[in-house]
Each structure stands twice: as C-alpha cells, then as structure tokens.
Design a protein that fits this description.
The structure is a single chain. It is globular, with a radius of gyration of 23 Å. It is of the alpha+beta class and 537 residues long. Strands 1-13-24-12-2-11-10-9 form an eight-stranded mixed sheet. The chain is 28% helix and 23% strand. The N terminus is likely disordered.
C-alpha cells in the first residue's frame, strides 16, 4: 500500500479528462417536470429486448444492465462528466505504486436487502466467485479480474485486492455493474441459479418479480442511505418501483409511450421521435464509450483466413450512408476500434474512408476474381461469409442489410444470420460463426484487451500478434495518462491493421421519455441510472 487516495483519484480523473471521456448527452422534444423531486410512483419502462440474466456479473446487453444495475452498488462510481472516480460503497481507496494492489475502505453500516452486513469478506467472496464463473459465463467481469491472485480481508471494512501483474484499469472496473457487490448467499449459488431473479444486492432497488424473457419488477429499498457521490441524492430512491416489460416491436413501444401506457422506452429511433414529441415527450441521447458496433471475423474460417479480405472490408463500407439512411445525426460513424467517447480513443477515420475502388484493388491483387454473378472467388472458393447478430439494438437488421448491399458492390457476399441473444452468446462461445456483429460498452480503453486480447475472449480465434499483444499488456502498467493514450492508440491501429474488427457505427442510447418523468440519467458508460428519477402523475 504505497499511494494514498489523492494520487490515484487524480490520476484516474486526469486520464479520463486527457483522453476524452465526456458526457455526450442531448435531447429532442419537450421538457421534463420542474420543481423539487416528488417521491412515489411506479415508472413503467419498455425494454427493446429481454434481459438475459438477473445477475449483474453475467450481464452483457444494455437492456439487461438497465435492470440489473439498479439492484447493486459498486465500490466506486465514475463521474459521467469528468471521468473522475468517486466514492460509493468505498469511502476511500489506495493503489500501490506498481498498480498491482488495490485497498478499499468501506463505509460503515451498509447492508444487503436481506439485512446481512456488507463487509470486506463480502467483497472478497464476490471477486472469488467471478473468477470461478470464468469468461464463458461472465466475460466482462472475468476480464476485469485477469491476473487476480486473491483478496485479503484487512479488517471488517477494509479489503485488499491483489494481482500478479500491474492492472491500472481495475479501479475504473470496480465502478461497473459487472463488479457490483451482491450478498454472500447470492454469490455462493451456481451460475444458472444466479440468473433466476433472486439476487440480493445493496442497491436502491430490489427484485420483486423476475420473469425470464418477459418482465422484471423492482421495488424501492427502504432505508437506503449510501448512494454514490455522483447521485444528486444519497438516500432512498424517489420512485416506489420500476416495472420493466419487454416490447420488441419499435412501433408498439413508441405507441405505448405516446398513449401513456409506458413512461420511458429503449431504442427510440429517428422515425419514432415525431410521435414521441407530438405527445409532449422527448428523446434523450448519449453516446456509448467502448468498442463501436462492427463485424468481428473468425480468422480461422473460410475466406476470412485471408488477411487481404479482412483489409478490403474496411474501405468497402460506406459508414455515413448507414447513419444517413438508418439512424440520424445523433449517431456517429465508427472511426476506430474504440468509440470516440472512450478514454484512449484515437481517430483512425482516414483508414476507414469509403473507397470501394481501393477495396476492389486489394481483392484483385490477392487473386479474388469476380464471377458471373459478381461475387468473387479464388481457387474455387466463393468470397461469401455469414454474420451472426442479435436484436440487442433495434437498428442492427437494417444496418446489416445496407452493409450487405455495399459489400456486394465490391464482390463480397454477406449472409445475414439473425439469432436470439442467447443463441448469439452460445455461438460466440463455441466460435461457430464466420463473423459476429456487436458492440461492447465501457468507459476505459482497456476494453480493447477484453475484446481482442489473445488470452481473453479472442473471438477472432487469432494467434500471437506481437504489435498488438505487447500494447495490450503495456497499457495495464502505464500510470501516466499520456503514455497510456499513446499505447492504446497503437493498439487500435494494430486491430485495424490485422483486420480484427470492421467498424460500422457508434452506438448511442436513444431513450424515449414521457413529459411526466424527470431526472432519468445516464452513467459514465451510457447505462440508465434510476436512483434520482421521479415521476409526476
């Protein structure tokens, strides 16, 4: 324990500020209720797709995290405006000079919703359990704990977390819902049992009912008084509860909001905005940090084993057309293997400029010749591959249909393979795909290691790439923000150079909100936080 609270906190805040974390919130339409917050009421929320699991540690999709985030608190929080790390369950923390040891001092008197105390032992058991779950069940959480050698209970309210190598990203990771703290009884359960809605956390809401693939009902935690320093109110939530229902059809969600049957909805796309605004509602937007939407090639299958094919895909996609045709000005094109709001982002838009002639030249030089139907082939193999995707974002199908048309113009046949979220996860774990289409959200550049590290998920199925592997390792020990930014920039270039990610668009959260709802806010990772929200009936 070699550095005090002041130094690491300043470092993390400087890192976020220096490397570009900033809240990119905006809204269109009507305003929200004014005056002091009014306690009471149930907020009715329409999810675009079903939550996949009630366990925050196993949560991956935004729709799932909107639900699971509300039942757990994290050791620290991240300010969405400045990127600064702020107290939550931990009142203070210390980081060793080599970034291998992190010590957290918990606030006094915190309890889980079953009234058992939240202690240093609880934190230890949570992290031990995540490591036991492993990357197949909890890929994000497990990656944040890579190199974990264990936690030591210093006293009832102090815990030290140790790693075998430097791990600069870990402090920010403890602000994520995936590392949110649950009761010892919950984390003792099997992975599947942790998905049944019986999870016990210390958060401002508790599960009342959880129906897999259908709905989730949350109730306010009476007596809650240890809210994040980021919250406007550290005491009990204003809402009596939240009723989440799954409404996959965009038009039905919008109609239900406009008619007053719902108070807020996910994925309010541009075509939905006029109806929402006509009813006095608004659409709130914020850009997601992390890895933008893109195609991740399985480099062990078919035509995608050829690096020239993967390289040709980069200039073959007209990303601005995707925005103009499917989305709107609140969304951005993908300009790197990190989204532009992510700390450590480097603008590589010049490498992603739409240039179909360049794509054709690359394929010509690699021996892929056009056939009678316009699709290229080489040595008897057609330049054809599939893309597995789930409806995690309402615009995915339309975006990929347009990408399919664009790629066909350069002689590439892209086959669309829509699946459920659960099937997509299963096929990813089995690497049963040619390419998979998704995004990953996190307000730290280390998400590159989670996504592309050869010893992490590695959905590319790649072998060693020294130029990339060395940078992903080096950024974990870089405590100087500028140095870490340079390293992450090199890593982003290496990802594109190897054709490991074909970016399309940056995700923005677009939440339709009724005029009766106030203070519905986004956290630093663009996920909804309902603690300060209130409704006026």
């Amino acid at each position: 324990m070699k550095r005090s609270l002041a130094r690491p906190t300043a470092l993390l805040g400087a890192l976020a500020a220096t490397l570009g974390l900033a809240a990119c919130g905006a809204e269109s339409g009507g305003g929200e209720p004014s005056g002091p917050p009014r306690p009471g009421g149930i907020l009715r929320y329409g999810l675009a797709s079903a939550p996949t699991c009630s366990d925050p540690a196993q949560s991956g999709t935004n729709q799932t995290i909107y639900v699971t985030r509300q039942i757990v608190d994290s050791l620290v929080d991240q300010d969405p405006e400045s990127g600064e790390i702020r107290p939550w369950l931990a009142q203070s923390w210390f980081v060793s000079s080599d970034a291998k040891s992190f010590t957290f001092r918990l606030k006094e008197g915190i309890t889980f919703s079953d009234n058992t105390p939240l202690t240093a032992e609880s934190v230890k058991k949570n992290f031990d359990a995540i490591v036991a779950l492993g990357g197949a069940k909890a890929p994000l959480a497990a990656s944040y704990l890579a190199g974990y050698t264990g936690s030591t209970v210093v006293d009832a309210n102090t815990v030290r977390v140790d790693f075998d190598t430097p791990n600069v990203q870990f402090l920010q990771a403890t602000s994520t819902p995936q590392l949110g703290i649950q009761s010892e009884a919950t984390v003792a359960k099997s992975a599947d049992a942790r998905c049944d809605g019986t999870n016990i956390g210390s958060g401002p809401f508790t599960y009342t009912e959880y129906r897999q693939n259908a709905s989730a009902t949350l109730t306010k935690r009476v007596g809650y008084r240890w809210g994040s320093a980021v919250f406007a109110n550290q005491g009990e939530a204003y809402l009596d509860g939240i009723a989440f229902t799954v409404v996959p059809e965009s038009g039905v969600r919008t109609g239900s909001l406009a008619s007053g049957q719902l108070d807020a909805i996910s994925d309010a796309l541009p075509q939905d905005a006029p109806q929402i605004e006509a009813g006095g509602g608004r659409v709130q937007y914020t850009a997601n940090p992390g890895v933008p939407f893109g195609l991740q090639p399985n480099v062990t299958r078919g035509a995608l084993t050829d690096p020239a094919v993967r390289t040709a895909l980069l200039p073959a996609i007209d990303r601005q057309e995707l925005i103009d045709t499917v989305l709107g000005p609140e969304f951005k094109t993908g300009t790197s293997s990190l989204a532009s709001r992510t700390p450590g982002y480097t603008d590589l838009s010049a490498r992603l400029k739409y240039d179909p002639d360049a794509a054709r030249r690359i394929l010509d030089q690699a021996g892929w010749a056009p056939g009678a139907d316009g699709i290229r082939a080489k040595d008897g193999q057609r330049l054809s591959f599939g893309v597995v995707f789930a409806p995690a974002f309402a615009g995915n199908q339309a975006i990929l249909e347009l990408v399919q048309q664009q790629l066909r113009k350069v002689g590439v046949d892209l086959r669309l393979e829509p699946v459920s979220v659960s099937e997509s996860t299963a096929r990813q774990n089995a690497r049963d795909f040619d390419t998979v289409y998704y995004n990953t959200t996190r307000a730290d550049g280390d998400i590159l290691r989670t996504t592309f590290g050869v010893d992490q998920r590695n959905l590319n199925g790649r072998g060693p790439v020294p130029a990339l592997d060395s940078r992903l390792a080096q950024q974990l020990s870089a405590t100087d923000p500028a140095e870490r930014g340079r390293i992450l920039g090199d890593a982003q270039r290496a990802v594109l150079d190897e054709g490991l990610w074909i970016p399309t668009i940056e995700l923005s959260q677009a939440i339709g909100v009724a005029s009766t709802v106030a203070d519905l806010t986004f956290d630093a990772s663009a996920r909804l936080q309902f603690h300060d929200t209130w409704v006026r009936r």
